[in-house]
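User: Predict the full complex structure for these chains.
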Amino acid sequence: MIRFESVHKRYPTGREALSGVSFTVERGEFAFLTGPSGAGKSSVLKLIALIERPSRGQVLVGSQNTAQLPARAVPRFRRQIGVVFQDHKLLQDRPVADNVALPLIIAGVQRREIDKRMRAALDQVGLLGREKSRPLELSTGEQQRVGIARAIVAKPPLLIADEPTGNLDPQLALEIMRLFRRLNDVGVTVVIATHDVHLIEQFKSRRIVLGDGRIDAITQSSTAPSAQPLA
Amino acid sequence: MSLAAYFSRQAQTLVGSLGRLAAHPFASLMTMGVIAVALALPLCLELLLQNATALTAAWNEAFELSVYLDKGAGTARAEAIARELQARGDVAAVRLITAAQALAEFRDSSGFGPALDALNDNPLPNTLIVTPSPAASSPQGTAALKTAIGAITNVATVQLDTEWVQRLVALLELLRGVIRLTGGLLATGVVLVIGNTIRLDIQNRRAEIEVMKLVGATDGFARRPFLWSGIWYGIGGGMGSVALLGIMVAALAGPAERLALAYGSRFHLSFLDPRTCLATVLGSALLGWIGSWLAATHHIRAINPT
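Assistant: Here is the predicted structure of the two-chain assembly.
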């Protein structure tokens, strides 16, 4: 589903965020992207969602080489990826319902269908009944969950999340992780960037460990780190 | 996307953009006001043109031909010619001014009484004032009539004083050109004003556009509400300019009528015809669409989420 081939990312400021990163995430997999802050987790996610493009190397998403994707095709490409942002990125002047429904509206889904699916998504994150609230009336954790509802509402085959539990209490964090797990059970490929080691320990999933822009280790959480990054 | 879904989405965006304008009434009205004032100038000239055209049309009907007879032709002959002309289909009325009447009138009005007394003869000829029938009141009709009358025996000259009308028509043509030019310039101004307003709108909603693009919105999708805003600005401005003209006409109708009355005319300052009003509003909406399209296409493309 996702394949990084010796990817380098240098920002215009000169900072080299990624240097020679290679890894693969199979279709239907549930993987953690971890490492200390500044290790390059966000850069990896941005490259997957085509918010950034690699300086060198190749990023393949769903067998599509993102380098060959013209700017015109980017919107359609992004609709196949649900993204949960660390800073939520909600429309502050729109109610929760509109925020969650946005991907469906953009995709041109019928109105009745939109309403149904928007409610279903809100139900999954435990916010049913808050449709009319504005994001600013919600707590940070609730805003985070609105962001998650928006990411899953269009049922994308790939879900990527940047610190999705960062603002949630442990109980809620666990629930959200279980939600991601359930989505994974029905076939969604899930990649979660987090430094919450505690949480990772509770799931037997593969870990891609980044450190200073390089792959430090790729592990199964049940086994010891293999310390064998893909070449 | 089905057609029905497309239209329902358009309708939603349309109402949504209207709501957004209503949320900032002062700023929206300022923009519409600028457009209204800009469009009011060419409209004002158009109003002048429409009224002047109506006025000259009335004058065209009042064309008269002055037929001067030979000095030798007596009053009897003049009466005969008058009867002959009266019988023509393209003549509405003939009035005979005999040489004696003309002299008396001239003596009264000119103040040259004593000088005229010094003359042995009456130097003035018998004159016929011919009014063409309404059907023959066109420039061609009167010209044909003039030729026909000129061919009658004892007719010395036929005068059709249309030169001033031709000058007026040329002047109106020039005015029409001025309207087109100022209209074009100010239309460009409206496009720029709306484009600039939309640019500011886009800047204010930059974060929102970024979010939309992040979840897969095309530039076209992000642009749509701004296009509607531009159209609304245009419609509002166009209606404002028509309203401004209405106020001007109401203010000037009284003085214009008094002036016309002083010239013995029942001229009435009329408002723009409904077609011009409608064309103004629709044209202004089109300008709004063009301005917002230019600004939105350019500035939305430049916004990329980070």
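Residues 161 and 227 of chain A are 24 Å apart (CA to CA).
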